[in-house]
Amino acid sequence: MICDSYIIEEEKLIGEVLSLPKPRPTILIQAPEGLKKLYKCLGDFLRGIRELELYFSLSPSYGACDIPVDEAFHIRPDLIIHLGHLEYKLSEVKIPWRILYLPVYYNIEVPQKTLLEVARTLQAKNWRTIAVVNPVTEALIAGRIRVYLLEAGFRVLEPVPGEFILGCDYSPMLKMIDRVDGFLIVAGGVFHPLGAAFYTDKIVAYDPYRDVVWNPVEEASRVVRKRMFTLAQLRNQPLRRAVVVAGGRPGQYRASIIELTRRALGELGVEYYVVSASYLTVDRLISIDDAFKPDFIVVTSCPRLPIDDFIDFYKPVLTPGEVIMLARGVEKYVYPW
User: What pLDDT does residue 109 have?
Assistant: First the structure.
């Protein structure tokens, strides 16, 4: 099925919907912001399969870790369709609803001039062995670029089939890091390339939505310098109190990471309070500060929140990895946990 410039796996979708036992089953559909535009197309397609009661979630969605269980509690759907991601493998909490994780593939042809630019950029770095990695949505485009680079004379490695990078999981990339000269990250926006550049400076990125080839290393270096400066400031002041934020969504409630953070705070001799939040905003951080007056706040739900959303908050907002660095005097930047 084609919606806009995206391909949705039709066979898997039809099989799942037809298998629902009720005569008029209820389905809750969720998508990240960039894919909510596919709601009408998908809804019309589903109504053509059988009689359904459809709900479309308008809440923010930041990935497969962010299933709208609060909405499902009231709607009681027979199926939740999460659009755009595969099942989140790092979840520590089982969700008591049937969920179909439905990948969506952005489907465009990469312009020839862009393919030439990619090849020239890699050649200028003297990279001959390349790995092309990507989130699931850009899988088709990444595959086409791999074919082009192979034909252009590069040796091209690819991740294990079915493995894709996430903003908090770069293991498909890290498995190949010692076997390549560099990586080409095919992904929209800054989010994924920046995270990849926290691990290595051998990164070039291609954004197929803007048709731009760019280098995320300089921005990643700027962010890391800022994070290291924050940690240096904390090391040079007395630390008495911290607040640990636990995620309120199942995929973002990380008991193992909370425990890791507790131990690190114990090593620092800092008292701490644990709060929970499904979504963090600046206003909620201000409320945390008003309530507990912490020296710093640790976010365990998503490592990108301290780095992307709250990097300029007036109190230090840290990742669990940064707390470990603080507690154990680690000088090499630790990401994500």
Answer: 95
